């Protein structure tokens, strides 16, 4: 059918809250589609990514929260 389905591998150990883990993975996937990269933003806030410049869409996303 030539339909691309996003795939995320989630390592889960017994006793973890699977619903919350899946919800976070889904939100992260949605944000990536919208142009926001949480890992890059975290590195920027930690001062480990000096050349990072957020684009207008990323700024707009976080000003609405």
Please outline the helices and strands.
Layout: H1 18-33, H2 38-45, H3 56-63
Structure, explained:
The chain is mainly α and 65 residues long. It has a domain at 37-65. It contains three helices and no strands. The longest helix has 16 residues, at 18-33. The protein is extended.
Estimate the global geometry from the Cα principal axes: extended
**How much of the polypeptide forms β-strand, as a percent range?**
under 5%
Tally of DSSP β-strands: 0
Which stretches of 5+ consecutive residues score pLDDT under 50?
A: none
Topology pattern, helix = H, strand = E: HHH
Largest sheet composition: none
- What is the overall number of helices? 3
In short:
The chain has 65 residues and is mainly alpha-helical. The chain has three helices and no strands. The radius of gyration is 15 Å and the shape is extended.
What tags apply to this protein structure?
65 residues, mainly alpha
């Amino acid at each position: 059918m030539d339909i691309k389905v996003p795939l995320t591998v989630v390592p889960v150990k017994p006793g973890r809250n699977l619903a919350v883990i899946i919800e976070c993975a889904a939100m992260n996937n949605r944000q990536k589609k919208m142009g926001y990269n949480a890992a890059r933003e975290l590195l920027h806030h930690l001062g480990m990514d000096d050349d990072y410049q957020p684009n207008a869409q990323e700024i707009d996303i976080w000003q609405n929260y």
